[in-house]
């Protein structure tokens, strides 16, 4: 069978052990910071999609999807889309699907795609989140993730971010 380039004949190479450990450590530190802030303030600082953001920010720091503008704006735009849809239309299967679709279109239009943020409309609609959810945890949580990524990658002598905005 001829490989036309469409299908790979094998999986991509495994990253170096150091890179894997830095990614794991970065994710651990970022989530721990958010959990400690949550415990200390009694405010919500963590949402499920941040776990997926950690994979991109710490394991793939050179990716455009890992850059601060994508992480921060992607999360805020998509969560705002879900909250607006719930507020103005209500929560139905159609409105949830439409909110995800609109969030994707908005992230692409603003050049801020961040795949984990695609889950935010579902998260906020299922939780019945209010507009204040955009501040805690969405905006401030995304800022914390980026700040921890800057520190971890700096300590590892990696260049992150490639660009800010």
From TrEMBL:
InterPro entries assigned to the protein according to its UniProt record, in alphabetical order: HPP, TM_HPP
TM annotation in the entry: 20-37, 82-109, 129-152
Keyword Magnesium attributed: no
Domain of life the protein comes from: Bacteria
Keyword field: Membrane, Transmembrane, Transmembrane helix
Protein's UniProt keywords contain DNA-binding: no
Residue ranges occupied by any HPP transmembrane region domain in the UniProt entry: 14-161
Protein name according to UniProt: HPP family protein
């Amino acid at each position: 069978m001829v490989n036309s380039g469409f299908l790979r004949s094998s999986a991509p190479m495994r990253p170096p052990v150091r890179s894997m450990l830095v990614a794991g450590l970065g994710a651990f530190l970022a989530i721990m910071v958010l959990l400690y802030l949550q415990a200390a303030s009694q405010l919500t600082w963590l949402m499920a999609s941040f776990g997926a953001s950690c994979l991109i920010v710490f394991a793939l720091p050179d990716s455009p999807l890992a850059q601060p503008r994508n992480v921060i704006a992607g999360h805020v735009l998509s969560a705002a889309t879900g909250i607006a849809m719930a507020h103005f239309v209500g929560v139905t299967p159609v409105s949830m699907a439409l909110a995800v679709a609109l969030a994707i279109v908005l992230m692409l239009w603003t050049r801020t795609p961040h795949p984990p943020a695609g889950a935010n409309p579902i998260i906020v609609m299922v939780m019945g989140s209010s507009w204040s959810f955009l501040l805690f945890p969405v905006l401030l949580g995304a800022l914390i993730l980026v700040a921890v990524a800057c520190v971890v990658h700096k300590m590892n002598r990696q260049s992150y971010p490639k660009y800010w905005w």
